[in-house]
Amino acid sequence: MANASGFFTPSVPRLRSKIQPSIGVSRSGFCFSGGISRRVVCSSAIEGAEKHVSPSESRMPKLVRKGCKLVGCGSAVPSLSVSNDDLSKIVDTSDEWISVRTGIRNRRVMSGKESLKKLAVEAAQKALEMADFDPNDLDLILMCTSTPEDIFGSAPQIQRELGCRNSPLAYDITAACSGFVLGLISAASHIRGGGFRNVLVIGADGLSRFVDWTDRGTCILFGDAAGAVLVQACDAEEDGLLSFDLHSDGEGGRHLGAPINDNETDELLGSNGSALDFPPKKSSYSCIQMNGKEVFRFAVRCVPQSIESALEKAGLVSGNVDWLLLHQANQRIIDAVATRLDFPQEKVISNLANYGNTSAASIPLALDEAVRSGKVKPGHTIAAAGFGAGLTWGSAIIRWG
């Protein structure tokens, strides 16, 4: 059975009425029994099997110690770069006004024949190439996005474009700027509790399509991008996901969102919820609506608490961490969180100035640049955190490579 951590808790048959096993899994993914906390996870993989077995095929479950590690990353951005000076020609703003308040100087925006699917596929291919991995050996593809180009999801189309012949499971995760962190935890849960071995996690968003380009408060913030990470099963001793902490608060949803236009839904429904006209009119989503001050307060309060909680679960302190990698929303938020956690600026990864807020893509995009530049090396420990619409937020303590 699955619990709040997303990891599998085995159902152990009762042998005698007086002997009842006490097994549970905390939110961090640690298993405890008899008051002794230790890292124990479950997988239905058959160890030593000569033939590759798809996770969708029926297998006898077996309790094994299993971990997961990040072995490859990739990213992709549109070709069109829009500078602050470019924006100053369409709204009342300036490079200084934007950079001082946000830290952003440029952002990438899809144009022409570019699409989010193509960016996601390119990022995925680069991650697989880094890991020297055949896409036909993938067991699962997770597409973390809030802006799919098909309302029913984009993951299966990405699976097709990658040329996966074994029909691995592929589905979307919608959690806005927290999406990639949730995708990473979901990948770990599938590996530890479902017997999956190779999971591709993609974070991709095209928020430029949902921006009101006449609104100075929001159009300066967002850009488009995609990033991907390959997560593989490994022995527990090599585990690269040390702990995590996840939360949601629907009460705060009013501060950041892009809901269906109210005037359109009001015209469609009567007071009792019945349709006034049939067939219904075509509906559309509004542009991004954000209360910047409230989102800032939420981020600088909740994100440090989440990272501290994850560090405690991993038995670490900030001094044990090599890098702080936050969702790239606003440089003021990044600086405030780093200060509260006592992280020096030289240990903070930030590429916000070049890309703006790319939502679910921001963490894997920044990670990919840091890995390829040689900044992040195998064995380095990273405290990563995503936060945004929902409201949702979460953190993960990971080890690269």
Automatic annotation (TrEMBL):
- Source domain of life is Eukaryota
Q: Which GO terms describe its cellular component?
A: chloroplast
The UniProt keywords, alphabetically, are: Fatty acid biosynthesis, Fatty acid metabolism, Lipid biosynthesis, Lipid metabolism, Transferase
Tell me the Gene Ontology biological-process terms attached to this UniProt entry: fatty acid biosynthetic process
Domain (Beta-ketoacyl-[acyl-carrier-protein] synthase III N-terminal) spans 171-250
* InterPro entries according to UniProt: ACP_syn_III_C (IPR013747), ACP_syn_III_N (IPR013751), FabH (IPR004655), Thiolase-like (IPR016039)
Going by the record, the broad EC class of this enzyme is transferase
This chain's protein is named beta-ketoacyl-[acyl-carrier-protein] synthase III
Source organism of this protein record: Gossypium darwinii (Darwin's cotton)
Which lineage is the organism of this entry classified under, starting from the top rank?
Eukaryota, Viridiplantae, Streptophyta, Embryophyta, Tracheophyta
